[in-house]
Structure formats: C-alpha cells, structure tokens
C-alpha cells in the first residue's frame, strides 16, 4: 500500500501579484483516497488545474508513476493516467450520456482515419467494444437507463455520475474529483460515497477535493489541508482533525457555524 | 521625404475615419460581446442618404451654400442611421442576447447583406459620384505635400467627435451606465440601470458616428456605392482589435495606426518586393535584362494594399489578442 | 440519407425505409423531370448538387467541430484553379481527371492546414473574422497574380478548361445512343455529381459515427472538457479544417470542369455566406438538414427568378428586383429569420441522438 503514485514537489502558481499556491508538496500513494481540503480560495482548484495541465505552474514538478508529468498539456496528462472532473460540471451537452462516455474512450482507441473511412474490421470491432464498454461504465455508475438521454437533460446527480463515468472511460490510474458532492442532497451524497469506495476497490487511486467535511473524513485514507496556497497539514483524517492549525484555519470556522 | 510625409498625411486622414467606425464596433463589442457585422453597412447607408439629400437640396434650393447643404445632409444621414441602428438592435440582436455565441454573429452577417441588398434595390449597382461641395484644390503646407480642405475638416471633426465621446463615456451619467453595463449586465440592471436602453443608446451613438464617417469617406473619395461599407467596416474592426477591443482609446489609436501602416505600406510595397533589388547573382538573365532597361519586377503592387488589414488582424488576434492598449473587458468569451 | 428520409412528409417517421426509397428515387429521376422544363433546369440541378457538396464540407467544420469558417469558398477556389492550371490551354497542361481532382483536393487540404494552424487558438467570433480575411486574401491574389508573372490571368480568369473525361468519354458532349435517343451532357454531369454527393455523404457519415466525429462534437460542446478527456484539440481541429477543405477542393475541381472557365468573381465572400446560410438553414450538424438546405436555397432563387420576373414585368412594366438581388434578399432574410425563429434549422441535429444502432448495441450487452 505504500507505493507512491503521485508526488508533487514544491508546486507554485502565481496570477499576476496573487500567489495562489506556494511550495505545495504532497504524496499520494497507490490505491488510497486522498483528500484535499481547505477554506474557499485556499488554492485547491488551482492545484487541480496545475496538476491536470490546465495551468502551467511557476515552479515545482509532479512525479507520476515514476516519471515527470508534462505541464500545461491537459491531453498528455490524461494519456499518462490522470483523469479529472470539474467543480461546475462540464459535460458535452448536445451529446447523449452514452456518447459522452464513448468520447471518453477516445484516448484508448486507435482507429486510423483510413480505418474509419474504409470501415475495416479493426475499426468496427473497436467501435463495438467502445459502445459495449460505455454501456458497462454507465451501469457501473448507475445511470444506464439514461444512456440515450441528452446529457443536458439529466438530473444534477446523474450529471455528476456521468462526468465520473466519462473520466473513468479514459482508464486512469488516478481519478481527480473536484467537489463531486457540491449541490447534492444527503441521499445523493451517500450514493456518491459508495461509488467512490467502489472505484477505489477496483484499483483506481482517488484525489478528492471536497467541502463536505463528513464525506472527506469518512472516505479518505489521508488528507492534506491547504490554506492561503500553503499546505498546513497532511495526515490521516483523525490526526488532521486534531491539528490546531487546521481547526484554526478551517474546521474552526466551520464549527462556529 | 515628401512622399513619406504625403503618405503620413493620407494615412492620418483615412485612419481617423477608420477610428470613428472602430468606435462603433468597440462600444458594441464591449457591451454585448458581439461583432456587429452590419456596422460598416450603416456607414454606407449614411453616405448614400447624405448623397440623396445633397442632390435634392441642390435641385430644390440651388442658392443654399455648400456648407449648409452639407450640414443638412449630414444631419439627415445621422438621423436615418441612428434610427437604423436602433431598429437593427431591437429587431435582430435583442432576442439573441442569451443565444449561443455564433447565432448573433450569423444574424449580424445576415443584416449586413440585407442592408447591402436593400441599398442595391434603392440606389442600384452603380457607383454614384459624390458632389465635391468643398473645394478640392489642395493646399501645400510643405513643398511637395498636399492636403485638401476636405481632409483638414475630416481630421479636425473626427478629433472633436472622439473627444466628445470620451467625455460622454467618462464624465456623464449615461457614460457611467454604459460602463456599468459593459462590466456586467445583470449587476448593472440590479443597480437600477435600464440596460436595454443603454444598449440601444450604444447602437444609436455608434451608428451616428458611422454616418459621419460615411459622409467623410464619400467626400474624400468622391464616390458612394452600395457595397462601399464592407471594406472600411472590416478595416475598422481590425483597428478596434488592434487597439484592444472594448477600449475606446484603443479604437482611436488602432484606427490611426492602421491608416498609417496601410498608406505607408502601400507606398513602399512595390519597390520593397522589386526583384531588381536582388543582387545580380540571384537574378535570372531575363530579369537582369528587364531591370537594365529601367524596368521593374514588383512581386506585390499597391493592389495588395487591402491585405495589410487582414494580415494585421490575423497577427494581432493570434499573438496579442488583447491588442495594443489591452482589452477592457477581458473575461468575455 | 437517413435524416433526409425523416423529412419526407407522412412517410418519414412511420416507414423510414420507404421514405428512404422515395428520396433515392426522387434524386434519380430529378434530372428527367427538370429536362422537361428545359436544359436550364438541369443546369440548376447540377449547381444545386455542387452546393450540396460544399455545404456538406462546410458543415463538417461548422456543424461538427463548431468552428465558424467564413472563408470556405477559398478552398472551392483552390480546387477550381487547380483544374484550370493542370487541365487547360493556360499552361498547356491537359492532365486526366484522376490526377487533377485529387491534386485539387490535396491542395485544398493543404490550404486548410495553412489557414488552420495559426488560427486554432482563436475563439469563435474572432475565428470567423480571420477566416473571412483569409478568403479575401485568396481572392485578392487570384485577382492580381497576373503580374509580374501571369499565373491566374487576373480578373479575366482562365478559359477553356478541359471537361471531365471518364474512361475516354467526354461527358460535356451528348452521348448518342440511337439516332433519336441521346443522353444530355447536363444529365451526365448530374449523375456524376450525384455519385460524388453520395460518396461524400458516406465518408462524412462514417467520420461522424467514429471516434473522430465524437472528438469533434466534444470540442464543439466544450473545448476544456474535451482536453480533459485526452482529446488532442489542436490536431482534431486541424483535421476538421483540412477534411472540410478537401470537400471544397473536390467540388471546386468539378465546378471548373463543368463551367469550363474560372474567374475570381465566382469566389466572392457572398458565396461563402451563401454556403453558410445553407448549412444554418437546413440544420447545422445534421447531414439531411444540410442537404435539404443546400438544395432548397439553390433552387428557391431560381424558382423566384422564373416567377418573379414575369410578375414584375406584368405589374410594373419593367424589372425592379433582378435575379441577383432576389437571391441576396432571400439568403440574408433566411439567415436572419432562421437564427431568430428556428436557430437549430429546418431539420435539427437531434435526430441522431436516438440512433437505432446505439439502442441495438445496448440490447446486446444486456
């Protein structure tokens, strides 16, 4: 259980004069659910965006599965095995649920233009496989009955699930979820917890950004806390909850509510 | 040296017309995020309406002086264009404010071609000569450099109009409401700004400026034509992008810079691409012969002048999409 | 043709197979019907098919990948001028069509890459304006490349282009079967063009239902999310640009052989806009809609011409609105009103989302 999957080394990111991340280092082990928490504006989503290549960091590097990750190139990061979801759901709105997941298979399919134009056997076989797997994936997250529904017509919770299914279709080693429980009711959140547990059991490491403290504490093996762009703690949930700095910065303020 | 000075004068004149039109593009883009494709055609309508009024006045009131005739024509043209701008905004654009971003652009293209077609129906396909009401005898402030009174008037009046607009936007209540609307429609309307009215006003002001520009354009070149708005429109848009779209000062700077680049560039394009300037070892036998006889072998002549605007547009958008002075509304996608 | 069949009144949704048959039969006998009204109408049908090809190609860029290209006609021009250079007395070359047509397609694809590479990062409306500029630049060059070396022959254009010769048959001549039965060359062109259209539909349909088509749709819907699932957005956009351009290039070559001469006048901005209107009018992203839009908007102006001119003559004693004006009026109004009233077009693209083949695949795994 202690093989390192992702190592962030001294990641820094500035926007103009604003320092969003400074010297953030953390280590995610293979097979765990790793939580990243912190108050609003602490730099969680920025960390996500730097990790997944949406932003280029101003310093530091990521070592993923033993070698350095390219920066600023989202599609190469996915190819290396890191998939993500978005805080404000970003589905392909004019495509069906099934097509969304099928699009997620893009990276793991290789039919050439020639193959597509001639509809050769490899292409047809691959298409059949993609469709089948996409259905399986929809079933895996529990929305197969909506396969031919336009994704924009799905309910909020189902859209979240679909986004996770689409990310899983890229066959990641690390699945990075950006506030997946935001806007969900209690039932939906508990279903989400089950889904994330299943995903972990099936061998995918999970990086979870979340506001819902209960969800994070119940689900994560280890948690890192960001505040003002700096990591102030990294430990198992029980220890983090006791950390005075964390209570001061984050839990303290939420307990006061 | 005289040639260069002359080209600078010409460039400034054309550039200030571009700048007036560019202001219309930039104001609308700043507020709606829409490239008002039909803006150049409003310029054309202004010019043709003014022409019609001038012809009428010359016939009906032959004793009316040149300046009153032109002023009346200009006023009517501005009024017509302001109404036109309002109608376009009201009927074609308002309903599409929340539509996917390509829909308003496609509509705008449609409006542009509709205006051209209607103008073609009313005024025909021919070029109309625009009466030279103000003397065209050029002055010679410097030996070998010519500037006509019309050009002087264009320079002075566009400078005045631009100053007026800047004051309007920065010092008045209306201007403040415009800036608030450009920043964020919803918030502005929550603050009590009637954003519909502000957007309509923006179109009206822009159209009035386009009408003036149209009259200037026709007075300077002496022609008016149903398709005359397209190229200046596109160039003015380039100017707006060059200066930083959404930025009034930028539109003016962009207009003048584009005018200068075009005018100076066109002047030197021919000789700059003349293969006779190549060292003799790089020339073929027939080329050497042509050049020796005092001929030239210009790859690009001044016919390619219009390419400058497109190339500048492409380069600016690709390498510095915020323009020279920066985009004021940068988060609008 | 599946979507086009959907549009057949009464039959479309009830019996798709029969509807498809109706569409196919109509397409096949159309030139015969037109012939009874005169050669002009066959010619008009021929042009309609060229517009269908252009609209299909543009749809690939605009409808599938969501990139608004206002300079599409430039690729048509590249195809047509390639034919003019390689198969006419202009340079004294008379290469066969199986070299010239692919060459035109290839050059057009190359032009698509050249235009595409620098402009890919631009957002929607800026992309539109820059592509418009590209189209104009191409036209300016066509007009002026007659000096100092004569390449394009300037505004006069190039004349006497070779016609299309298939297996030794020059299809610009009538084919005499018996003494009193001959096949009209315009009709021959119609079937050649129809073949090309069917070929294009098959190719585009295959692309649409592949990983490439899904990648394009993903980019169109949400570029950031497309990157996040590992789609190489730059390459896919380039592919869309050059594939779209290829269709333009082929159509251009056919146009050159059909028309017999090319000049810059045929490649004005108005034509780019006309093709865009066809795509928008029929339904962006829906092949049937695009075909319907192209046919409707190339036939309607001609119908108007044949109706409106005599009517005007009778009412006013002279013609007020000439055909060109009528066409522009029709196109611009179509563009405005479609966007205002029915932005998804006559046949919206939604039909494809309840695809039977997908439902079938679902059953397999259950």
Automatic annotation (TrEMBL), chain A:
The keyword Ligase does not apply. CDD domains: ABC_Mj1267_LivG_branched. Keywords: ATP-binding, Cell membrane, Membrane, Nucleotide-binding, Transport. The keyword Mitochondrion does not apply. SMART domains: AAA (SM00382). InterPro entries: AAA+_ATPase, ABC_AA/LPS_Transport, ABC_transporter-like_ATP-bd, ABC_transporter-like_CS, BCA_ABC_TP_C, P-loop_NTPase. GO terms for molecular function: ATP binding. It comes from the Bacteria. Residues 6-253 form the ABC transporter domain. PANTHER family: AMINO ACID ABC TRANSPORTER ATP-BINDING PROTEIN, CONSERVED COMPONENT OF ABC TRANSPORTER FOR NATURAL AMINO ACIDS-RELATED. This is ABC transporter ATP-binding protein. It comes from Uliginosibacterium aquaticum.
TrEMBL record, chain B:
InterPro entries: ABC_transp_permease (IPR001851), BCAA_transport_permease (IPR052157). It comes from Uliginosibacterium aquaticum. Belongs to the binding-protein-dependent transport system permease family. LivHM subfamily. It is found in: Cell membrane. The keyword Cell membrane applies. This is Branched-chain amino acid ABC transporter permease. CDD domains: TM_PBP1_LivH_like. Pfam families: BPD_transp_2. Keywords: Amino-acid transport, Cell inner membrane, Cell membrane, Membrane, Transmembrane, Transmembrane helix, Transport. It is a multi-pass membrane protein. Its main location: membrane. PANTHER family: BRANCHED-CHAIN AMINO ACID TRANSPORT SYSTEM PERMEASE PROTEIN LIVH, HIGH-AFFINITY BRANCHED-CHAIN AMINO ACID TRANSPORT SYSTEM PERMEASE PROTEIN LIVH. Signal peptide: none annotated. The chain crosses the membrane at residues 12-35, 67-88, 100-124, 144-169, 198-217, 237-261, 307-326.
TrEMBL record, chain C:
InterPro entries: ABC_transp_permease (IPR001851), LivM-like (IPR043428). Pfam families: BPD_transp_2. It comes from the Bacteria. One of its GO terms (molecular function) is ATP binding. Coiled coil: none annotated. It is a multi-pass membrane protein. It is found in: Cell membrane. Its main location: membrane. Keywords: ATP-binding, Cell membrane, Membrane, Nucleotide-binding, Transmembrane, Transmembrane helix. The chain crosses the membrane at residues 21-42, 48-68, 73-91, 97-119, 126-142, 188-204, 238-261, 273-296, 327-347. This is ABC transporter ATP-binding protein. The lineage of its organism: Bacteria, Pseudomonadati, Pseudomonadota, Betaproteobacteria, Rhodocyclales.
């Amino acid at each position: 259980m202690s093989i390192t999957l992702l190592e962030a080394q001294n990641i820094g990111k500035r926007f103009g004069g604003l320092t969003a991340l400074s010297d953030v280092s953390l280590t995610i082990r293979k097979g765990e659910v790793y939580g990243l928490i912190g108050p609003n504006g602490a730099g969680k989503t920025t960390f996500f965006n730097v990790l997944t290549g949406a932003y280029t960091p101003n310093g530091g590097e990521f070592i993923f599965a033993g070698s350095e990750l390219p920066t600023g190139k989202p599609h190469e990061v996915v190819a290396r095995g890191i998939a993500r979801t978005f805080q404000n759901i970003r589905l392909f709105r004019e495509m069906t649920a099934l097509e969304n997941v099928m699009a997620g298979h893009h990276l793991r399919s290789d039919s050439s233009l020639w193959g597509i134009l001639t509809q050769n056997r490899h292409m047809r076989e691959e298409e059949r496989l993609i469709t089948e797997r996409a259905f399986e994936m929809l079933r895996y997250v529990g929305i197969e009955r909506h396969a031919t529904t336009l994704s924009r017509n799905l309910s909020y919770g189902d859209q979240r699930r679909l986004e996770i299914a689409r990310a899983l279709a890229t066959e990641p080693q690390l699945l990075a979820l950006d506030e997946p429980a935001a806007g969900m009711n209690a039932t939906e959140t508990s279903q989400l917890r089950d889904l994330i547990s299943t995903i972990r059991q099936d061998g995918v490491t999970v990086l979870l950004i979340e506001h819902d403290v209960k969800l994070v504490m119940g689900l994560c093996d280890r948690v890192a806390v960001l505040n003002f762009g700096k990591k102030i703690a990294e430990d198992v949930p029980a220890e983090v909850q006791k950390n005075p700095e964390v209570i001061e910065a984050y839990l303290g303020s939420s307990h006061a509510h | 040296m005289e040639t260069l000075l002359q080209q600078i004068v010409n460039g400034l004149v054309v550039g200030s017309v571009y700048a007036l039109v560019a202001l219309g593009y930039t104001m609308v883009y700043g507020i709606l995020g829409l490239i008002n494709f039909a803006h150049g055609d409003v310029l054309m309508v202004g010019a043709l309406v003014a022409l019609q009024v001038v012809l009428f006045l010359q016939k009906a009131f032959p004793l009316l002086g040149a300046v009153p005739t032109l002023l009346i024509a200009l006023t009517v043209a501005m009024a017509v264009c302001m109404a036109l701008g309002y109608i376009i905004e009201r009927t074609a654009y308002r309903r599409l404010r929340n539509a996917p971003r390509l829909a308003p652009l496609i509509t705008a293209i449609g409006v542009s071609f509709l205006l051209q077609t209607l103008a073609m129906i009313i005024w025909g396909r021919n070029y109309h000569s625009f009466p030279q009401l103000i003397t065209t005898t050029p002055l010679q402030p410097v030996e070998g450099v010519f500037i006509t009174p019309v050009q002087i008037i264009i320079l002075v009046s566009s400078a005045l109009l631009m100053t007026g607009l800047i004051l309007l936007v920065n010092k008045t209540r209306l201007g403040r409401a415009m800036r608030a609307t450009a920043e964020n429609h919803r918030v502005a309307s929550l603050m009590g700004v009637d954003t519909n009215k502000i957007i309509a006003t923006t179109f009206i002001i822009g159209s009035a400026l386009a009408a003036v520009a149209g009259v200037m354009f026709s007075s300077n070149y002496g022609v008016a034509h149903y398709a005359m708005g397209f190229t200046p429109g596109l160039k003015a848009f380039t100017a707006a992008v060059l200066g930083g779209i959404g930025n009034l000062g930028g539109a003016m700077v962009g207009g003048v810079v584009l005018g200068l680049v075009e005018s100076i560039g066109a002047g030197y394009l021919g000789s700059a691409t003349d293969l006779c300037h190549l060292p003799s070892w790089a020339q073929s036998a027939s080329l050497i012969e042509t050049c020796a006889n005092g001929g030239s072998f210009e790859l690009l002549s001044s016919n390619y002048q219009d390419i400058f605007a497109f190339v500048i547009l492409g380069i600016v958008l690709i390498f510095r999409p915020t323009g020279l002075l920066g985009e004021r509304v940068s988060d609008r996608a | 043709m599946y979507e086009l069949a959907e549009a057949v009144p009464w039959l479309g949704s009830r019996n798709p197979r029969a509807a498809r048959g109706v569409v196919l039969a109509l397409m096949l006998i159309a030139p015969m019907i037109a012939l009874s009204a005169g050669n002009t109408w066959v010619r008009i049908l021929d042009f309609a098919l060229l517009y269908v090809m252009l609209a299909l190609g543009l749809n690939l860029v605009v409808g599938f990948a969501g990139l608004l290209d206002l300079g599409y006609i430039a690729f048509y021009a590249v195809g047509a001028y390639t034919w003019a250079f390689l198969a006419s007395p202009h340079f004294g070359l008379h290469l066969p069509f199986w070299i010239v047509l692919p060459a035109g397609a290839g050059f057009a694809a190359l032009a698509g890459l050249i235009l595409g590479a620098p402009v890919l990062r631009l957002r929607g409306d800026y992309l539109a304006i820059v592509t418009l500029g590209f189209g104009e630049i191409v036209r300016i060059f066509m007009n002026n490349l007659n000096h100092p070396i004569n390449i394009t022959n300037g505004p006069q254009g190039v004349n006497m282009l070779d016609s299309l010769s298939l297996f030794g048959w020059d299809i610009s001549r009538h084919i005499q079967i018996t003494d009193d039965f001959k096949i009209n060359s315009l009709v021959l062109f119609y079937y050649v063009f129809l073949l090309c259209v069917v070929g294009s539909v098959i190719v585009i349909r295959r692309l649409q239902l592949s990983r490439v088509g899904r990648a394009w749709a993903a980019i169109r819907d949400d570029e950031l999310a497309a990157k996040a699932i590992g789609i190489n957005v730059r390459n896919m956009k380039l592919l869309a640009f050059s594939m779209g351009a290829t269709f333009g290039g082929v159509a251009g070559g056919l146009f050159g052989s059909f028309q017999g001469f090319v000049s810059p006048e045929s490649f004005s901005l108005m034509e780019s806009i006309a093709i865009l209107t066809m795509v928008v009018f029929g339904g962006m992203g829906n092949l049937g809609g695009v075909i319907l839009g192209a046919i409707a908007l190339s036939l309607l102006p001609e119908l108007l011409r044949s109706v409106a001119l005599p009517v005007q003559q009778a009412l006013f004693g002279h013609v007020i609105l000439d055909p060109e004006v009528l066409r522009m009026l029709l196109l611009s109004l179509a563009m405005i009103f479609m966007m205002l009233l029915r932005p998804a077009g006559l046949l919206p693209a939604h039909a494809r989302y309840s695809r039977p083949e997908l439902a079938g695949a679902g059953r397999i795994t259950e």
